Amino acid sequence: MSTREQCLELDAQDPLASLRNEFSLPEKLIYLDGNSLGVCPNAALERVHQVVKVEWAEGLVTSWNSAGWRALPERLGNRLASLIGAGENEVVITDTTSTNLYKVLVAALRVQAQRAPERKVILTERNNFPTDIYIAEGLAELLDQGYSVRLVDSPDELQRAVGDDTAVVMITQVNYKTGYLHNMSELTRLCHEKGALTIWDLCHSVGALPIDLKAAGADYAIGCTYKYLNGGPGAPAFVWVSPALRDMTWQPLSGWWGHARQFQMESHYEPAPGISRYLCGTQPMISMAMVECGLDVFHKTSMQALREKSLALTDLFIKQVEARCSSHPLTLITPREHIYRGSHVSFEHPHGYSVIQALIERGVVGDYREPHIMRFGFTPLYSRFVDAWDAAEILGQVLDSGLWRDERFMTRKQVT
Amino acid sequence: MSTREQCLELDAQDPLASLRNEFSLPEKLIYLDGNSLGVCPNAALERVHQVVKVEWAEGLVTSWNSAGWRALPERLGNRLASLIGAGENEVVITDTTSTNLYKVLVAALRVQAQRAPERKVILTERNNFPTDIYIAEGLAELLDQGYSVRLVDSPDELQRAVGDDTAVVMITQVNYKTGYLHNMSELTRLCHEKGALTIWDLCHSVGALPIDLKAAGADYAIGCTYKYLNGGPGAPAFVWVSPALRDMTWQPLSGWWGHARQFQMESHYEPAPGISRYLCGTQPMISMAMVECGLDVFHKTSMQALREKSLALTDLFIKQVEARCSSHPLTLITPREHIYRGSHVSFEHPHGYSVIQALIERGVVGDYREPHIMRFGFTPLYSRFVDAWDAAEILGQVLDSGLWRDERFMTRKQVT
């Protein structure tokens, strides 16, 4: 067990410590929910004023060109690319994760319809983030061509389940509940050996750990920008497609922004070459502009440095909670091995919901996920070692005191 | 021909004149492009600060509940409902117009698949806004069940074309090029008599004229909030479905926000009852919050009063242009009859692109649409009679002087 002083010393020696100054953080709050909604970059406060007051109110329609709004999906995509091992002009920021998943899922099934039309199974984990499963169900139902969604219950079962009937394996790289980190290279290689394509949902890994889509040979990737990337509430998502597959198919949300000649206003669709064909309609520019402020901070460090700190933080938190709270019924469901761990730590507790509510009142913001999961996200851009220590200590106090049994914490309300 | 003094007098007597003070407008600019991007409400300047500085930076993840983010799609939908003749809890603000069109198009085809599966034609106008056609093409291609998109070349041909094979008639109520206003009640009645369903794209009519979807018996409607509603660049769109049809089908962009029990995180999709099933993923909250500022202004007046002023403005502009510019090759393509006119006026000119560029430099912002169209939008919340007079005068000067022939206006650049 570490002492609080040791943690303060770790923070004092942390070469990334100054990055915390890039963000507007409420004083005294221990915010361990950046994996649900990242914090606000200081730059966003100025940038939003510029976008609304100058670009919208004064520039009006001319800002589509003069303020660069038109090219923002591509430009921000390029800004994000290095964080996920993508190349120039391979990523766009647009729409939502769910919508982008729909696009790449159709694209992947179309590729398979050309290569191996007998493959009709979309394979994923039962505890994948639900929207991924729902989108796949919605598409399978719509197509009415024998497609089905198959759910597996563990990473091992997933590997065994990839077979001759598998069209696509659709996996969230870091599981939103357990924090389990899938091995992208190995799983992609396995899928390709078995003839399946891969779709990687990077929501809980982008900005949290190094990702190299091209080195892994991945086929498709999507993800959000509002967690570790600190792009703002509900900020537009991203989509990447392997250049080898990108121009083989078009995607069915074929709006005018994905047209080869958008402003020719032609009466038939022709997909743009390249990743722009994954655009659809006009994007929410004020929210979109905020994404850049979050991305800029990442260019002041490296994902490798952030990963090292992230693992040190989650190691510390696991160790401290297990030492400080050993008399309470907490079960760690996040892997201890670094190669299988993302950047959040989840413990089960029979009354996880109430414990989380009590923690929030005590100034430690984690979140709750069904059925019993308390989730704590460590975001190495701004989380401190002393935060991990204090959070474990306050968790211990909440559990020791039984504070969480108070009626006000037992009543359910909805939290994202 | 009116005098400028008469126009100033009309403005002085205009009971809606004070509404202009609700907006932040660049001085001396005559902005006739609110039908492409509406102006910035003053309230938006304060609201955006609140959303970013207080709700995001300070409230962080708790703002999903405490700041009401979670319910914003429905709450703003209710705020919009009265402008389109929709009832309480019948509209949501979400995603883009293109994406929402995809959702309702699938829903309509599913209803027809139950009622009249032999109907396979999606009928629309060739000069409909292109994204509507593209989305229908994308869906027809995806379904691979014999669906096709049929394009007609006039409102008369449209009426004749509705037949036994028509599944859906998909029309933009006010044509983005000509400003032609379709009769929603008559066309809906005709479609229903012939067994077809109707989808109304309200992008160029919402906030510009009174709309009564329920009185017209319409089936589906979608539209944007960034034109006459002044919701901000690329602000999220809306979707309405007739309550009689709403719960008959689900839509394929079946993300977690449309689930019956979103936070139960179940592993199978079940659509929420009501219009919430048209939600998909997490929405861009900063852009979304701005929509409210635009909608609030409409609740200070009535669509009937706005319509009267709109027609007076477009009448004046047509009359002035035709008088002032009679020696130039201008062709009015907007209907003169009020019942067929929206709130923008379009003239063709052989060099429309260059004339518009020259006008913009002279401080009159209209926009250009292929092939030769100069489009001028009158937004009765803030357009003045003297603006219509001055715009016609400056157009006359630009044409008389040949200013538009200057090289800097002849070079094409892209404008939305």
UniProtKB/TrEMBL annotation, chains A, B:
What is this enzyme's EC?
A: 3.7.1.3
Metabolic or biological pathway: Amino-acid degradation; L-kynurenine degradation; L-alanine and anthranilate from L-kynurenine: step 1/1; Cofactor biosynthesis; NAD(+) biosynthesis; quinolinate from L-kynurenine: step 2/3
Give GO terms: molecular function aspect only.
Answer: kynureninase activity
Instruction: Please tell me where pyridoxal 5'-phosphate binds in this chain.
Output: 97-98, 129-132, 172, 201, 204, 226, 256, 282
Q: Positions modified as N6-(pyridoxal phosphate)lysine?
A: 227
Q: Which UniProt keywords apply?
A: Hydrolase, Pyridine nucleotide biosynthesis, Pyridoxal phosphate
UniProt family annotation: Belongs to the kynureninase family.
How this chain assembles, per its entry, is: Homodimer.
Protein name (database record): Kynureninase
Protein source organism:
Ectopseudomonas mendocina
